[in-house]
Amino acid sequence: MTLIKIKKVVKYLLALIFHFSGFNYYHISKLNSHYILMFHRLDDDNDILNISIPLSYLSDIIIWAKGLGEIVNMTDLLIQKEKKVRVCITFDDGFKNIKSITKIKPNIPSTLYLSTAYVESEKKFWVTELETLILRCEKRSLDLTSFCLDVYELDTIQKKHIAIRLLNSQIKKLHPASIEAVVKYLRLILPRHINDNQQFLNWEEIEYLISVGMEVGGHTHSHVISSKVTADEFRKEIVMSNNLITNNTGKPPKHFAYPNGRIQDISVFSRDILKNHGYMSAVTTIEGPNSIEDDPYMLKRFNVSKDRIENPWGRPSKAMFTTMLVNPISVH
C-alpha cells in the first residue's frame, strides 16, 4: 500500500469516528451556521486541478445537505437572517455541463457566478486549457523563464501533473495581460485539443437554469483577480459583467464571487466597487462556515472536490462530507 493510500485510509477512519460518534452533527447543529458549497464542473472525468465532480456525487451531497438543514440560494440566505443551519449550492465560471443539475431534481436553489466573457463564446478558460495543453505535450521540458516563470519537467505523467499544479499557482500572480501572453505562447508551441468540458453556457441555457431555480451572480467579465489589476480595470470588469447579465436576463446581479478568492487575491478597493454597483454579497474561497453577523462581502465557502468526499475506494462518503464541514483536527 502506497503512502498516499495509507494517508487516505487514515483520514477516512478519522472521518468515520467524527461522523458516527455524533461529533460532526453536534458541532454543526450547535453553531447553526451557514455553509456555502463551491463547485465548478459536473463531470465524471478526473482532472488534475480537481474542479470536476460527478453529477451522482452532487446528488448525494444535496441529500446530505438537506439532512443538515435548509438549502437556499444566496438571496434568501442574506435577506432571511435566520440563525439555523442553511446550505448554499454555488457554481463558478459557467461551464455548460452544470445544466445536468436539472437531472437530479428541478428547482434546486442554487447560485451561478458567471464570467461573462465566456458566455456564448468559443473561448477556452485558461486554467483548463493549460491543463489540456501540457497533458498532450510531447516535450520533455517547458521553459517559461522569459515570462518570469520556471522551467517545468514534462518527461513523465507525474511530472506533468506537478507542472500543471505549479504553473496554475504561479501564473495567477501575473497581470491578466501577462496570463494571456503565456497562454498564447503555449498555444503556439504545444499541440491543441478541444475538450467539451471547456465549453460554456449560452444565454438561452442560462435563462433555462434561472427558470428552474438558479440565480445568476457576477464573477467579473474575464475572470480577473482583483488584486492583480487597478481599481479602474476592476470597475470596468464589473460594469461589463453587470450590463451583460442585466441585458440578457432582465435582472442585475446581486451576488459576486471573487476569482481565485483567497485573501491575497482580494483588493482593498473591491468592496466599495461592488457596493457601488449594487452587489449585496461577495464570496471568497476562504474556507469555513458563516454566521449571520459575518461580513457579507467576505463570505467563506467550502471547495467540494472528489478527493475531499471520496473514501479510499473511490466512493462518495457522507462521513467525509460532514468532516470536511467541521474539520475537527484541521486535516481535511
Describe the protein.
The structure is a single chain. This protein is an alpha/beta fold and 332 residues long. Strands 1, 4, 5, 6, 9 and 12 form a six-stranded parallel beta sheet that branches. Strands 2-3 form a two-stranded parallel ribbon. Strand 10, helix 10 (270-276) and strand 11 (281-283) form a beta-alpha-beta unit. The two termini are 21 Å apart. It has two domains: 32-121 and 199-300, Glycoside hydrolase/deacetylase (TIM Barrel, Alpha-Beta Barrel); 126-189, no CATH class. The protein contains twelve helices and twelve strands. The chain has helices at 3-20, 23-31, 55-68, 74-79, 126-135, 157-171, 176-189, 203-211, 231-249, 270-276, 306-309, 318-326; strands at residues 34-39, 41-42, 52-53, 70-71, 86-93, 110-114, 141-143, 151-153, 214-218, 255-257, 281-283, 302-303. The longest helix has 19 residues, at 231-249.
